[in-house]
Design goal:
With about 450 residues, the protein is α/β, with parallel strands linked by helices. The protein folds into 2 domains: about 375 residues, TIM Barrel (Alpha-Beta Barrel); about 60 residues, Immunoglobulin-like, CATH 2.60.40.1180. Helix content is about 30%, strand content about 20%. It is built from 17 helices and 18 strands. The strands form 4 sheets. Strands 7-6-3-2-1-10-9-8 form an 8-stranded parallel β-sheet. The protein has a 6-stranded antiparallel β-sheet with strand order 11-12-13-18-15-16.
């Protein structure tokens, strides 16, 4: 577990917030001693390489827009094949200088409360308990870089914030995020207060980790301290996802970083750039990453790009093209993330400053079954989960293998809306089994792929 790896680091963590119950390695992390652990340990947290993340936008997931409504549909998320539920921010959001609508969930007014809009702490506990009973972990979105302007820290601890030359608290520079105030991580008391607030949810709701928003904006030293501290609270694996593309986050102890560049390259390839560009992006995202457990989270949609760019159906050539791209994102040495609604082919952009409930009656059930089939294969493939990647792409076909001791998987995905011929490299010729239908296929000189079609082969 990560707490063993970071044992030495935690010896240097501030203990100014008081002692807590000792972890099993004897170190006392800086956590408020008043907290007691709710619930029981979740022993079935999936290994980082085995994870499939399902992102929930509470304002879109249901008509009610509540945590309880998510709990009611946990079985559906489980049936999709996800084993980690990632909840967008559940906290009360700011009213002052609001960006509009109901306000941004990423403008946090109180780090230690559930917004009444979504329910209460008991509703979150019930969701986590229900997910654990189905062998799914739950992670919360955490916004460490900035707060709402009406967060109590503004008046009680103005020293926590960055200021201009006149001493006025500022918004995050060069972002246009005017609804939030920039925190100052040179202040050690702020660091302790932020870690304390993160720990609150581990203790009081028994969550299994965090997706940390805008992680590139927050110093590495803070993340190192935060990750190592959070990891010691419970004697179980904790999942830490940096919403950042910088590899330094792996050094801080994060399990995952975000595939921002992979997504942009995937769009470019679908707009005509050579498919070989994905190999270059893949290499860059894993450059100097020597821990084989670390993973880049890859996606064809999330709350940001759904709203700003469009749905996978908009971006990747309709339903067929969206699946040709999803197969690549899900299988190329990655952790796949699915944004609520994409699995049914929902073709509407989802606001998160207002309520825009998904109409689940519009489900494309054939597409849903295709998602399930791909995820099910991934779940049972040691090569996809733990194997070694090799790239063989052409201009029009994304091609790669994932190889483990007892299994090799070959993925061929035509990212063009036309039939293409792929010339087989000598190493890949021979007999393969179609991983999705069990049929045999002999790859010889070349293979013809219909528009936006893909093959997942194994041997």
């Amino acid at each position: 577990m990560r707490h063993l790896i970071y044992l030495v680091l935690t010896l240097f963590v501030s203990v100014g917030m008081g002692a807590c119950d000792q972890s099993d390695d004897g170190v006392q992390p800086p956590i408020n001693s008043d907290y007691t652990q709710y619930g029981t340990l979740f022993r079935n947290v999936p290994a980082p390489q085995d994870i499939v993340i399902y992102q929930v936008n509470l304002r879109a997931f249901s008509e009610e827009g509540t945590l309880a409504a998510v709990t009611q549909r946990l079985a559906d998320i489980k049936a999709l094949g996800a084993n980690v539920i990632y909840l967008m921010p559940i906290y009360p959001n700011g009213i002052e200088n609001s960006a509009g609508g109901l306000g941004s969930p990423y403008a946090v007014r109180d780090y230690k409360s559930v917004s009444p809009e979504y329910g209460g702490l008991e509703d979150l506990k019930a969701l986590v308990d229900g997910a654990h009973s189905l062998d799914m972990a739950v992670i919360l979105d955490w916004v460490a870089n900035h707060t709402a302007w009406d967060n109590a820290w503004i008046s009680e601890h103005p020293e926590y914030y960055e200021t201009d030359e006149e001493g006025n608290i500022i918004s995050p520079p060069d972002t246009g995020w005017l609804d939030v105030a920039q925190l100052d991580y040179s202040n050690q008391d702020l660091q302790d207060a932020m870690i304390d607030a993160m720990a609150y949810w581990v203790y009081n709701a028994n969550i299994d980790g965090f997706r940390c928003d805008a992680a590139d904006f927050v110093p590495e030293g803070f993340w190192t301290k935060a990750v190592s501290t959070i990891d010691q609270i419970k004697d179980q694996e904790m999942l830490m996802l940096a919403e950042g593309g910088e590899q330094r986050h792996f050094n801080s102890g994060f399990d995952f970083i975000f595939g921002f560049h992979f997504f942009e390259t995937l769009k470019a390839v679908n707009n005509g750039e050579p498919a070989t560009e994905l190999q270059s992006t893949h290499a860059a995202e894993y450059q100097n990453v020597y821990d084989q457990d670390k993973r880049v989270v890859r996606y064809t949609s999330n709350h940001d790009v759904n709203l700003s760019d469009g749905t996978p159906i908009d971006l990747f050539g309709g339903v067929e093209g969206s699946m040709a791209s999803f197969v690549v994102a899900a299988c190329m040495k990655s952790v796949p993330m699915i944004y609520n609604g994409q699995e049914i082919g929902y073709d509407q952009r989802l606001q998160f400053f207002t309520k825009t409930p998904i109409d689940w009656t519009q489900a494309n059930n054939e597409l849903l079954e295709e998602y399930k089939q791909i995820i099910e294969f991934r779940k049972n493939s040691p090569a996809i989960q733990h194997g070694t990647y090799s790239g063989y792409s052409s201009d029009n076909v994304v091609a790669f293998t994932m190889e483990a001791a007892n299994e090799s998987v070959l993925v061929l995905s035509n990212v063009r809306n036309e039939e293409v011929s792929y010339l087989m490299p000598p190493k890949l010729k021979g007999e393969w089994e179609n991983a999705l239908n069990g049929s045999s296929m002999n790859l010889e000189t070349s293979v013809s792929l219909s528009p936006y079609s893909y093959l997942i082969l194994k041997k």
